[in-house]
Design goal:
The protein has eight helices and 19 strands. With 407 residues, it is of the alpha/beta class. A hairpin with a 3-residue loop joins strand 6 and strand 7. Helix 2 packs across helix 5, helix 3 packs across helix 4 and helix 5 crosses helix 6. The protein folds into two domains: 95 residues, no CATH class; 215 residues, PAC-like subunit (Rossmann fold). The protein has a nine-stranded mixed β-sheet, with helices on both faces. Strands 3-4-5-6-7-8 form a six-stranded mixed β-sheet, with no helix packed on it.
Length: 407
């Protein structure tokens, strides 16, 4: 009886005994790496002028040959380490030949069967770079993001005024948190020539106001990696010695423009809110979350006293609402016991109030609706959720988009 040909093992796993033969494992046909002297169980640096880069290209070639011939062993797990000073390579438990993780925090990947060195990209790298602001004394971090809870641009307007002229002390990796199709950079074109791109940024600035060190994060609301970003912001705050967190926001509400802007508060524990701001609303309110709330919750979980001040903006007003930005600045002033620059917000708020009064006076239905809102505010009564929705829908049906007061 003659020995069966090697091809008789087709369909079986490589490297097993068949008919008295030891079938070769496919990776045994690839060049071996020499072992470094005195390093048991470690793979040495290959001889010759070539050296390892972010991912060792020669080892990538070896893995590619293994993958191409089906040599990846499912269920195999373990770590092969390079010589001293080199990153280590972990073979994934599922035997996936397309990805290998280096101990330095790099994932190498490449197409199965490719002999080209695998590409490397960083993972686990910090989302931020911390500058050197010098010694800070009990700094407070003020945060405002645009989008979901920035009605009338009130929060970002207020925070931008506070941060004016500040020094950038923390820069977050915008490429990893923004979707540039949703938040496209602004392009300047001068006389037919592309001159400048203005990219979205996520940064913390340091300002000194009223003898206080204030850190201000005012930015577009990022699209990606909210949990990771919350951890990174909290980590940066801890590194800077932040003692308290102040979120600023604004929400559309059933309030009239003819009354002072109401402020709702949030607090990580009782007694943190200052002035006459009350936490609210009472009871359970379940709404879609904004990133600023995710950030505030993470900061509180990491031991930073956290509060939030949220202005209520008349839901029938579109565009910027400077009166709400003014009230948020006043809330920050009361909380910190300092005075802040208010810029031209007072004049802008007066001008908008005049335009809104004129718009509501020309229509009986609009005027009656505003008067009803006034009576509820004067009685310190807010409508229930179903009642509010019904009122808003009825108002929009009666007025349509043309009859709604606008800035």
């Amino acid at each position: 009886m003659t020995d069966p040909p090697l091809s008789s093992h087709a369909g079986g796993p490589p490297g097993i005994r068949r008919a008295g033969l030891r079938l070769p494992r496919p990776w045994r046909s690839t060049p071996r790496l020499k072992r470094a002297a005195g390093e048991r169980g470690r793979v040495g640096i290959p001889s010759g002028p070539r050296s390892f880069g972010p991912f060792p290209s020669r080892l990538a070639d070896q893995r590619a040959a293994t993958c191409r011939s089906g040599g990846g062993r499912r269920g195999r797990s373990g770590v092969s380490r390079l010589a001293a000073g080199q990153p280590s390579l972990e073979v994934l438990p599922d035997g996936d030949c397309r990805r290998a993780r280096l101990a330095s925090g790099t994932v190498a990947s490449g197409p199965v069967g490719s002999r080209v060195a695998a590409r490397a990209y960083p993972v686990g790298v910090s989302l931020f770079e911390l500058g050197d602001p010098g010694p800070l004394t009990s700094p407070s971090l003020i945060v405002a993001l645009d989008g979901w809870v920035d009605a009338g641009s009130a929060a970002t307007t207020a925070a931008t005024l506070i941060a004016a002229g500040g020094q950038v002390v923390v820069t977050f990796d915008a490429d990893r948190v923004f979707d540039y199709r949703a938040r496209r950079p602004t392009l300047d074109i001068v006389d037919g020539r592309l001159t400048e791109l203005d990219w979205p940024e996520f940064r913390i600035r340091l300002v000194r106001a009223g003898g206080r060190d204030l850190l201000v994060l005012v930015a577009p609301e990022p699209d990606y990696r909210w949990p990771s970003l919350a951890g990174a912001v909290s980590e940066a705050a801890g590194a800077l010695g932040v003692r308290e967190w102040i979120s600023l926001g604004a929400i559309p509400a059933a309030v009239p423009h003819t009354r002072p802007v109401p402020i709702l508060g949030t607090a990580s524990r009782p007694g943190l809110l200052r002035g006459d701001i009350r936490p609210g609303p009472s009871g359970l309110l379940r709404v879609p979350a904004a990133l600023i709330s995710v950030l505030e919750m993470r900061a509180a979980a990491d031991g930073i006293d956290s509060v939030g001040y949220f202005a209520q903006v008349p839901h029938y007003v579109s565009g910027p609402y400077p009166a709400a930005a003014l009230e948020l600045l006043a809330a920050v002033e009361r909380h910190l016991g300092i005075e802040l620059d208010r810029g031209q917000l007072g004049e802008e708020a007066d001008q908008l109030r005049t335009r809104l009064d004129a718009a509501t006076s020309v229509d009986d239905n609009t005027r009656a609706y505003v008067e009803r809102l006034e009576s509820m505010v004067d009685e310190e009564r807010l409508p229930a959720g179903d009642e509010l929705i019904s009122e808003i829908e009825q108002f929009l049906r009666d007025q349509g988009t043309e009859g709604r007061p606008r800035a």
